[in-house]
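Lab notebook, bench 4. We co-purified these components, and the gel suggests they stay together. Before we commit to crystallization screens, I want a quick structural picture of the whole thing.
Request: model the full complex, all chains together.
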Amino acid sequence: MNNKKLTIIRLVIFYTLAILPLAIFTPIFSDLLGEPMFTGEAAASQITTTWGMIGMCAPTLANVLTRLITREGLKDSYLKLEMKNGKWKYYLLAFGIPLFYMIITVFLVLLVYCRDAEHWFSTEGTVTSFWMYFGQIGSTLVLILPFFGEEFGWRAYMTPKLEEILPMPAALVVGGILWGVWHAPLTVQGHNFGLDYPGFPFLGILMMCIMCTAMGAILTLLTKRAQSVFPAAIMHGINNQMGFGVFLMLFGAEELNEYADKLNTPESMALLLIPEVIIGAVCFVILCREAKKEKTAA
Amino acid sequence: MYGFLYRDLRIARPMLIASAIMLFYTILAPIFGALNLSSGQEDLTSNNLICFICYGMNMFFAFFVQNEMHKGDEKRLPVCFAIASPAGVKGYVKSKYLSNLILPFGLMCISLFTDLIAAAIVDVRTDEVAPTSFISMIMMLFQVIILLNSIELPFMFRFGVKKGANLKSAIFISILAAAGIYFLFGDISMFGSFDDFLQFLVDVMNGKKGGTTLLALSALLPLITLGAYYLSYLLSCKLYLKGVEQLEQ
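Here is the predicted assembly.
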């Protein structure tokens, strides 16, 4: 069997194993809760939280199982934790990049959605929210497992395998689409965009694919430069933990919380994603240029 | 470096097997406790107590089992091998720091997953919208263990395994003694009965009590822990050879 064919088989096994748990168990849990998992009371349910965290580990399990099934071994596992030769920069960037695009996003939210709010700031609320913000960073560091669970599958296994069989731009786009579609069982349950929007659920899944392609380019760049999956896991964690709501609350005024609830729609998400997509596009170009240079040098 | 890590895990194998047996109990107890629940508040309190003890036991065990991994570190052969290996002193010290992180981290993850599953079962059985979660407590204990490790390890490398372990135990006993003295002579009227005290702890962990100070503490602790562990590693790299000289004498 030639290498390309073997890589495709590995990718198929990996993706099937990664998506199956979500596709099977999400509808079962939703049925148990009596309503879609990410709406109303079900969203606050412990079952949703538990399944969210355990489900995120499916790609890691898929990575390990695929390596075992296809007797691949642990080479190129991206598990090194090194700060030497300037690699520490990428760990810092893992904290800095989400902070940067979310601050821009918050200003977009305030300008577009909160223009009619009476107060943007309140001292007491800002102090509490400031510590909440640091708390989120801290808990991301300690509770890194679910985010590592995703990244060890997508960035440490799927993306390098896609790069073996496709040119870099196609590998990034296909990787983003596969990652976005993996979220489909959750998107159908109202994750990120709710249920009440035109084109449900296909528009939500499409949005998720765009979001994952942009985010995937940033995370792939970090993984490749650091030669480790950990910066990507940290950045993924900070991105997920620091929802726009947390940043919006940084401004402190309680009435802004009401606005945060209204951001759970595809059109508002499309606007909010602009800064992330721009940074993703820059990373996409950098990765493609580097791949081209490597190809020319070879 | 990974060879050293493998060696540490091999040496600690009996204790790791003992941890696995203990885990069998500490995983099953909260889950069975949750499965036996009815919707009464009394049941919920005793279930909280079971979880509290089990997760505490997990972290407590991690705290002491680590010392098993340093067995034989002061023998001549491993010391010479550590200095002469391609990874060098830094690689050896790094492997020790990793092995001291892996066990508490593993036990923390297992405790967290047990807690998530137990809380999900409570949610289903009692219709509680937000059942008690011990995530904050487990995370806090993990960070305290890592913080204590970052004090112990440089001492261990400089003055030997025994003195390092004694120091860690001394700090731990001091904390317990301080808590004991407070409970004997301090004002505990605010806690009322034991159930109230447990409820107070649960509220603090779930952010319902404690205010900004506790929020600030829980926010800063991970960053302090991470910084302390890294600084401790740098210090240990410098102190290791001095410790070996002392060992030779």
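Residues 84-297 of chain A form one domain. Worth comparing against the SEC data before the next meeting. Chain A touches chain B at residues 32, 41, 44-47, 49-51, 53-54, 127-128, 131-135, 137-139, 141-143, 145 (CB under 8 Å).
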